[in-house]
Amino acid sequence: MPERKPQSDHQLRHQLHEIIFEADTSAGKLFDVLLILSIVISVIVVMLDSVAALNIQYGRLFFFLEWFFTIIFTAEYVLRLSCIGRPAKYAKSFYGIVDLLSILPSYVSLLLPAGKFFLVIRILRLLRVFRVLKLVQYVGESNYLQRALWASRRKIAVFLLSVLLLMVIFGSVMYIVEGAENGFTSIPRSIYWAVVTMTTVGYGDISPQTSFGQAIASLVMILGYGIIAIPTGIVTAELTFKQNLSTQVCPECSAEGHDLDAKHCKFCGADLHPH
Q1: What is the pLDDT of residues 21-40, one digit of tens each?
Q2: 176 burial via Cβ count (<10 Å: 0-12, 13-18, 19+)
């Protein structure tokens, strides 16, 4: 009997993985649907708790529900870690970080009461609905866009640095041209004006009064419209291929984005269909 224990533990972990991470089985789909409903209700509770009138009348109920869902999500997070071959991989993944952040605010609120309102981050967990509803193409598109953004990171970093330099230059010039009498009381405040103008937000709390300053502002506005389009072009250039991906989750590292006919994880090499 002792010799069969490792195999039994392996089977139990595999069954837990199928229920918690996969939506191909009826048990897995039921688990995900109940999880999504719990997430929605818990986020609604947090939002209602921030309404003063409701907090006075139903404060105790909200407190109980918040901790009820926190305990459930904590247990779920522990189970996810326990049924993955490489728990650290999942803990550092996007969903792993979101799952952890969704429960931390409750424990932080024991020291900082206002911290509980950060529980609304649980809404990010609703991204799991793509897998539940079999929206494979959307899961694939998100991974596809993520790869394109990662491939463009250096170009985007150079672009953002160039924009930052332009804002510093224009802010400094406007500080010299307009001066404190027109609201440009310092270079940082003038850079703030450049940021607001170049991003086409235009709050209007600071505006140039001289003809030269208005001419510079017009140039900054035109540049702003041109700058908005550049990141789109950079990312679009990387969108050169498209793949059909499955929703299969690796039982070892919890990675997604595998090809439909994949037998092994392309990230860690583990068997995607262990028996």
Answers
A1: 877 778 888 888 888 888 88
A2: exposed
Structure tokens at 94: 């996007």
Domain ranges of the chain: 2-132, 151-238
Helices and strands (H, E) in the chain, number of each type: 11, 0
CATH 1.10.287.70 fits 151-238, yes or no: yes
Assigned token pair, 21? 């991470």
208-233 pLDDT, tens digit each: 999 999 999 999 999 888 887 777 77
Could you say which architecture CATH assigns to the domain 2-132? Up-down Bundle (1.20)
Over the stretch 171-183, which tens digit does the pLDDT of each residue have?
999 999 999 999 9
Q: What is the DSSP secondary-structure string of 10-37?
A: HHHHHHHHHHHH--SSHHHHHHHHHHHH
Q: Cα 88 to the chain's mean position, in Å?
A: 19
First to last CA, the chain: 20
Structure token digits, residue 250: 């690796």
Q: How far apart are CA 117 and CA 255, in angstroms?
A: 30
Full-prediction pTM beyond 0.70?
no
